[in-house]
Every structure is written in structure tokens, then in C-alpha cells.
Design brief:
Elements: E1 9-14, E2 19-24, H1 29-37, E3 44-46, E4 58-64, H2 70-86, E5 92-95, E6 101-106, H3 113-130, E7 135-136, E8 148-151, E9 160-162
Parallel strand pairs: 7-8
Antiparallel strand pairs: 1-2, 3-9, 4-6, 4-8, 5-6
Length: 178
């Protein structure tokens, strides 16, 4: 793919494809415009920044409703916030761009991806135990029973989440004739 010289990129080795993959580094308005004009929807971001790819800036817990009411997502998010406040850890919620919430917890590049994932799993387990009637750790949709899935698995080297304010493609609904 053609990439103009003025756009910064980062090459990262992918075990899955057994090759280096060149990623855009979107760190200015011009690059964002270029990527948007290419029709890049949605924009996904790593938890680590260029220069310290092995040490994530944050971990994420993805509160995925898929069949659960959004009010339950909010209730699970509040339980998670209470837990994090008790641990004196800051957190920042953002929409997932679809139907759920991402709760990001800053790590300051102090831990490895594996340590981050282990901590995310522990937090997910604790919040699920605090709200067992409306939350689950079961990944398969059929096993969730209409509960909010507390997804800790979105942490790790090369795993991405949708960026803030990123557009998400959705299937257009047909308009009915009057």
C-alpha cells in the first residue's frame, strides 16, 4: 500500500502472518484526515505506544451487553468504578462505538502485556462476583444468558480497541414507504 513520506509508520512483527506489518501512527490532524479520507472505518488503537510496544499505557475492560439492557452495563460500570476507587486506581469510561462501554485504567507503561492481562482478568472476576445477577465472564453469546459480558481478553500485544470518536460501520436500515 502506498503511504506518503510525511506519514509516520511503525513496523511490527506479526507471528500470525510471519511478517512485519506497517501501521500508521496517527499523532497529528493531517494524518487523521488522510486515514479518514481513505475510508478507514473504524480506527483501532493499541494499548501501547510506538517506542514502548511491550509496555501498555492502559488496560481495558469491555462491558459488552449483547442482549442485556444498557442499564445493566451502567450498573456493572458503577460497580467497577467502586472497586477501582477502593484500590485507588483511576479509570476512564468511553463508549465502545457500538453498544457497550470500555473502561480504561492507566498503567503508565510499568507492566508487561501479560501482567496487564492477568490484572484485567482479576478485576473482571471481582466485578462479576459483585454483580453476578447481571454480569458474566462467559464469552460465547449463547452462554451469557442475557447478562453483560465483562471482557478482559481485549488486553495483550497487538490487540486493539476502537479509538475514541471513531465511526463504526453499521448496516443501513431500509426505509419503509409511506
Amino acid at each position: 500500500m502506498f503511504v506518503p513520506d510525511w506519514i509516520r509508520t511503525e513496523s511490527v512483527y506479526s507471528k500470525d502472518s510471519d511478517r512485519d506489518i506497517r501501521f500508521f501512527v496517527i499523532d497529528d490532524v493531517e494524518t487523521l484526515r488522510y486515514v479518514a479520507n481513505m475510508g478507514t472505518i473504524p480506527i483501532h488503537m493499541w494499548s501501547a505506544r510506538s517506542g514502548s510496544l511491550e509496555r501498555p499505557d492502559w488496560l481495558v475492560l469491555d462491558l459488552d451487553p449483547k442482549g442485556a439492557p444498557f442499564a445493566h452495563v451502567v450498573e456493572v460500570a458503577r460497580a467497577l468504578r467502586s472497586l477501582l476507587e477502593e484500590l485507588e486506581l483511576p479509570s476512564h469510561p468511553k463508549t465502545s462505538g457500538a453498544t457497550g462501554l470500555h473502561v480504561l485504567i492507566p498503567l503508565g507503561r510499568r507492566y508487561t502485556h501479560e501482567e496487564c492481562k492477568t490484572f484485567a482478568r482479576l478485576l473482571a472476576t471481582l466485578v462479576q462476583h459483585a454483580k453476578p445477577e447481571i454480569s458474566t465472564l462467559a464469552r460465547p453469546l449463547h452462554a451469557r444468558g442475557g447478562k453483560v459480558y465483562v471482557d478482559w481478553g481485549q488486553n495483550g500485544h497487538g490487540i486493539t480497541i476502537v479509538a475514541p470518536y471513531s465511526l463504526r460501520p453499521v448496516r443501513a436500515r431500509r426505509r419503509r414507504a409511506p
